[in-house]
């Protein structure tokens, strides 16, 4: 099964750059930076659900059955091989590390992303719009 979707901009700017993964302790969990990251993950999930609700009913049923729709929508099952490849277009030269953007998208979508394989590719910053093309392949 292969799912492809585009994340355009970010939650605060429809043309903005994607948001990188952040690491905070529990005590730091309600800072503005963390709230921005939580909203970014919701933005990623919306882009994912917009595609699977229209084109991937098998995956949608799996998400609904695993009851993780309001959390991390994809749970990698024991014998599955899952890969996520992303291509990142930057709005400008002031942007995050692509590896951390990969991590933020994985964090938004996968319940157990330690089993996830994949890649990221920086496509440049001439587009004047930040976006990410995400391709997820699930093999059973």
Number of strands: 4
Shape: globular
Q: Report mean pLDDT, rounded to a whole number.
A: 86
Number of domains: 1
Percent of residues in beta strands? 15-25%
- Following the backbone from N to C, one meets helices and strands in this order, namely EHHEHEE
Q: What kind of sheet is the major sheet?
A: 4 strands, mixed
Oligomer: single chain
**Based on helices, strands and strand pairing, what is the structural class?**
alpha+beta
* Major beta sheet, strand line-up: 1-4-2-3
Number of helices: 3
Measure the end-to-end span.
Answer: 9 Å
The name of the CATH architecture is 2-Layer Sandwich
Uncertain regions spanning at least 5 consecutive residues: none
**What is the CATH class?**
Alpha Beta
Helix residue percentage: 25-40%
CATH fold descriptor: 60s Ribosomal Protein L30, Chain: A
Q: How is this structure best described in words?
A:
This protein has 140 residues and is α+β, with helices and mostly antiparallel strands. It has a single domain (2-139), classed as 60s Ribosomal Protein L30, Chain: A (2-Layer Sandwich), CATH 3.30.1330. The chain has helices spanning 32-55, 57-65, 98-109; strands spanning 2-8, 81-89, 117-122, 131-139. A 4-stranded mixed β-sheet has the order 1-4-2-3, covered by helices on one side.
